[in-house]
Amino acid sequence: MKLTIFGASGGTGTAAYREALKRGHQVTAVVRDASRLPDDLRDRAGVLVADVMDPAAVEPAVQGRDAVLSCLGTRTGRAPTTVCTDSATSIIEGMRAAGTRRLLVISATAPYPDPGDDTLSRLLVKPLVSRIFAEPYKDLLQADHLVENATDIDWTIVRPPRLQDGPPRGTFRLGLDRTPPRARTIRRADLANAMLDLADDPASIHHVAWVTS
Fold first, then answer.
1. Residue 90: beta bridge partners?
2. What pLDDT score was predicted for residue 129?
3. What is the distance between the alpha carbons of residues 158 and 113, in angstroms, rounded to a whole number?
4. How would CATH label the architecture of 2-212?
5. How far, in Å, CA of 78 to CA of 201, rounded?
6. CB-neighbour burial class of residue 113 (10 A; exposed 0-12, middle 13-18, buried 19+)
């Protein structure tokens, strides 16, 4: 596949970039600062330095792509932010201009109670985490709403639980529109594998994919 990955210098984005190359995909890795990429990825021909908040810069980055992966997230801690909303707006606008349809974006499970949640998650963990990160989750919820209403885009929203670093475990569990039981954590590398699998899975289009270890 021909892929564009936004946020390729972040933890999940780097894992997705590395795994996509391993699978033999043709990848454009969009970053704001190439120096933040690992040494072995920094000078590859597919690295594109561009501002994801500028739809005019997004359009050529997604032109002719089979799928676009957004691994962007905020680094503001608990502070108010519009990173997710602004980047989603720009990516969708750029994709429309380029005629590119397939989009996968990373969300989170904490702001979303689900019938599959166990009692501890439903009554304690998710409400507590949602209060602590109320401002960045407000941005995330707005971005998810924006993506879900882009009916001309073949979107999949990917919702992982708490992310962990480390090598891939090699497995993950997936639930479409419902969280799998005991969804606690997932390694970024396994989340990257899940996103790449989903990118080529038409059954996940216009669905929320809950992924966990």
1. none
2. 87
3. 15
4. 3-Layer(aba) Sandwich (3.40)
5. 34
6. middle
Distance CA 193, CA 187 (A): 10
Residue 26 near residue 1, CB atoms below 8 Å: yes
**3-state SS track over the chain:** CEEEEECCCCHHHHHHHHHHHHCCCEEEEEECCHHHCCHHHHCCCCEEECCCCCHHHHHHHHCCCCEEEECCCCCCCCCCCCHHHHHHHHHHHHHHHHCCCEEEEECCCCCCCCCCCCHHHHHHHHHHHHHHCHHHHHHHHHHHHHHHCCCCCEEEEEECCEEECCCCCCCCEEEECCCCCCCCEEEHHHHHHHHHHHHCCHHHCCEEEEEEC
How is the chain split into domains, by residue range? 2-212
Q: Both tokens of residue 31? A: 């970053």
Which residues neighbour 8 within 8 Å (Cβ) at sequence distance 6 or greater? 14, 16, 17, 29, 30, 31, 37, 41, 47, 71
**pLDDT score of 197:** 98
Q: Is the dihedral of CA 140, 146, 147, 148 positive or negative?
A: positive
**Parallel/antiparallel/unpaired status of strands 67-70 and 47-49:** unpaired
pTM (predicted TM-score):
0.94
Tens of pLDDT along 3-57?
999 999 999 999 999 999 999 999 999 999 999 999 999 889 899 999 999 999 9
